[in-house]
Specification:
Elements (H helix, E strand, L loop, with lengths): L24 H14 L2 H12 L5 E2 L4 H4 L3 H13 L3 E6 L2 E6 L1 H10 L5
Antiparallel strand pairs: 1-3, 2-3
């Protein structure tokens, strides 16, 4: 199986690097919501499954088996990732298809980049 490389390009939308200057309260809260959502092994696995998806999206029903979690638990984790802006969902009939929000991931990545 070939490994898929996910490219994330930084944006200027969210917050400056935490290493550049002190953050104000709203910037810190925005970053914390994203990093808090990432601080769970199941949610990291969800992101890795989405990143490896050939079509760039995965049906909520297709997370249950690889994660070994019940459908309500999977939905709970997806809700947290969605509220943090890390994934987006598209309802099709009774199922929701999820994809990564690469811009949000790039914002979080950029916030940890050293200042040159």
């Amino acid at each position: 199986m070939a490994k898929r490389v996910v490219t994330i390009e930084p944006t200027d939308r969210c917050c400056p690097s935490v290493l550049a200057s002190p953050l104000d309260a709203s910037q810190a809260a925005e970053l914390a919501s994203g990093f808090t959502a990432l601080a769970d092994p199941v949610r990291l696995r969800v992101l890795s499954i989405l990143a490896a998806a050939p079509e760039g999206e995965v049906c909520v029903c297709d997370f249950v088996e690889p994660l070994g979690k019940s459908q309500p638990t999977v939905s709970h984790h997806l809700k947290i990732l969605s509220e943090a802006g890390l994934v987006g969902g598209d309802r099709r009939g009774k199922w929701v298809w999820y994809s990564l929000n690469r811009e949000r991931l790039a914002d979080l990545q950029a916030a940890l980049q050293p200042v040159e």
